[in-house]
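Researcher: Sequence of AP-3 complex subunit beta follows. Predict its structure.
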Amino acid sequence: MLESNKDSAKLDAMKRIVGMIAKGKNASELFPAVVKNVASKNIEIKKLVYVYLVRYAEEQQDLALLSISTFQRALKDPNQLIRASALRVLSSIRVPIIVPIMMLAIKEASADLSPYVRKNAAHAIQKLYSLDPEQKEMLIEVIEKLLKDKSTLVAGSVVMAFEEVCPDRIDLIHKNYRKLCNLLVDVEEWGQVVIIHMLTRYARTQFVSPWKEDDGLEDNEKNFYESDDEQKEKTDKRKKTYAMDPDHRLLIRNTKPLLQSRNAAVVMAVAQLYWHIAPKSETGIISKSLVRLLRSNREVQYIVLQNIATMSIQRKGMFEPYLKSFYVRSTDPTMIKTLKLEILTNLANEANISTLLREFQTYVKSQDKQFAAATIQTIGRCATNISEVTDTCLNGLVCLLSNRDEIVVAESVVVIKKLLQMQPAQHGEIIKHMAKLLDSITVPVARASILWLIGENCERVPKIAPDVLRKMAKSFTSEDDLVKLQILNLGAKLYLTNSKQTKLLTQYILNLGKYDQNYDIRDRTRFIRQLIVPNEKSGALSKYAKKIFLAQKPAPLLESPFKDRDHFQLGTLSHTLNTKATGYLELSNWPEVAPDPSVRNVEVIELAKEWTPVGKAKKENSAKKFYSESEEDEDSSDSSSDSESGSGSESGERGESGEEGDSSEDSSSGQESESGSESGVEDERTAKRNSKPKGKSDSEDGEKENEKSKTSDSSNAESSSIEESSSDSESESDSESETESRRVTKEKGKKTKQDRNPLTKDVSLLDLDDFNPVSTPVALPTPALSPSLIADLEGLNLSTSSSVISVTAPVFVPMKTHVLLHRMSGKGLAANYYFPRQPCIFGDKMVSVQITLNNTTDQKIENIHIGGKKLPIGMQMHVFNPIDSLEPEGSITVSMGIDFCDSTQTASFQLCTKDDCFNVNIQPPVGELLLPVAMSEKDFKKEQGMLTGMNETSTVIITAPQNFTSSVILQKVVNVANVGAVPSGQDNIHRFAAKTVHSGSLMLVTVELKEGSTAQLIINTEKTVIGSVLLRELKPVLSQG
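Model: Prediction complete. Tokens:
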């Protein structure tokens, strides 16, 4: 079938072969036949061939090398999946001779437009490093470049490569630390695990210990009755001694939501991060998440319980509320049961010990003998740890000595022996009882323990001890080696304390031991004979024989086997095995003094600080149109604090992806890939340098623009300054182009200032038709990948925004309103909202929302404002100014901006009056998350060609032919979605284009009329989720008459 000329037969054959591999069958014999098809033009066959080659390239290196030119050609393939697969195969051929080729391929792939290919480049780095460690320095350069990547798809893979190749190069992380913290929520699960472990190690080297703060709190509690002044002084001192670094807090805050992850490894990683770097007062939140994992399969339970066992030794309080979660179930495997016992023992205290002992009584009766024995050991540990129950436990263990099960009895004997060592004088009766058991117990350890106890206490049981020795002498030859050693010891002790009765008996035992097969016993016999039986040869030691044999023995410490595991990082293989595993990276101790935190600052922050005052000065003159002065100050202070900490209000994405909103350079799919965007940046810089001397023409242009849209310049300058003040740019090229554009804006501002002043009185929040800052064609960048959860799906993209694509005015604005608050629910206050389809004045990533408030009562409603907000992670909202009062039957319309992060998630918040708060929410239709763009048919086809495969969704529409006229289709499409019409040279094809508000990803809609009454609706976009939702909404609208 592989030799067939038909692609269908080859495809069927490849599917069968890949199926064989999936089942674990060996398909290596087919390698020559499969490798011939690597040059197939059919993409589906090619993908499957690459899957096969990745599996067998290492085994069949010679044959794979023959096709290396094909792989190199495939690295230039327009399909990103083929490029990535070719790189995977190339890195799987582990032959030193092709290392330079691999190195070149990795470098090229790291600058690829597709995040999926860059992700595979990061994977290839590790393979190349294991093949040739000498390439380390060159690979570090690639890692440094990929660490700057803003794609969530790449982040986890590049950090994995960093951990493998150069885990000690902490300096590479400094500049990317805040970005990694902010992207963490949106990275795929296994990437999250790697990043969290790396950031845990990073935090331990860069921040001071937060545990000093807790020590201070404890001291404060002890001196509770001190005067207020003294207490205040102490509090001030403590504040001076420790203040948590904002970056330290950023990491703790951004990992907290991941405790709710469905992936157990992610939860475990966050738990170990909190354990190792969070203040002790905050680690309590991880206990609930870890207990939740105990519902998982047994392997997950085993790892989680091991880590809880280590934690519960140091901080019992964390898990005490969940004590019942650690009760043993009959269905648990033995390994889980013993770990739960360990944790219950660690959590035992005076308050709960009675409950636990009742629980242990049941466990002792278990059919699982190993578990029953472990329970008896647990009772012994509880008895030593809690002195109040020592006697109770001892009596319980003595009762177990009459148990029918030999293993239970033997374990009880061993534990009683340890307990009696702590209080030897009080328990003569128990020793007598145990001596009687020698006849029935056969377990060597138990027999040895009884003999040891009788030997140690031979003076307290003078009648029984000689008789026990007599019985043991009879059976000496048939006993276990362990028991024989204790018989010899018992004989020696009795010889020294009661030689009248036992002298001959001891000599008889020593003679038996002299000829024993085991050399340990022969050695012990010779040693004891020389020590206790004085003769001419015996030295001075024989005088001290009694002191040597009957010395006071220290009581054994019954400790947890997890006591010393805490020096390994929790959740690691080394912790599980309790030994250092290969590749384990130790956590360093906290530094005494924190290293310089400014190394994590990104260059643009400094530039932002320099120009902010200019922006403020400008605002004082012209900003009264939209903001009150007090709000202006709040905004600027908020934004500057955000830029310093490197994070936004909740997920901090403004700091990472917001900076590109105002720059006018081209970049490829939101990534600052060096090869793709450098030339664009250079062209732009030269263009700006050339335009600088022509101040006059600039100002003339500014005046023309001012005539076209009256307040666009002032509004634009104002909105851009607000947006930019909260940005935290990552790249130097961005920052340079921004500063250049600001200078141009300032020049325009000076020239048009006189024109602007008289206009300020006429502008209101509702004049959004005039506010069209992008009405002239502007070179728009493709923004960075959205840190929303949907961003994972945009990974497999190849698109770049073309320089001729520009945002246009909306074709149609539907006036359909949605109820925000019904007058009955709002006690007379009614609220409706609609989407005006205009660029938002509060931020270029926000969707503009108009809210109309009506007072349907006969009384004045006072202080209408937005209260508490419950927004999904990443979503942001700019609220309207509080309304002092709304007259009876009065109405007012206000504007809000909401950054929905390119998702249809609901924005929930409270609409409050002076007396009440009402829970309301806004859910955007998918069509309102778009901005219409103008583009030529040629550009449309080019972009559509790069958004195929996983980025394309389509469906067939059936309706009457009269519904397929151009005007009807246009009306129906723009009514549902805010898209722009693209001119088409064919009557049967209608094209529409838009971009998403948040990330700027293109949304291309095609309606292609077929014969009869059918048409095909095609949507191409990186945002596959939004694309499929839009498809579902357009289909019924286009189908109906």
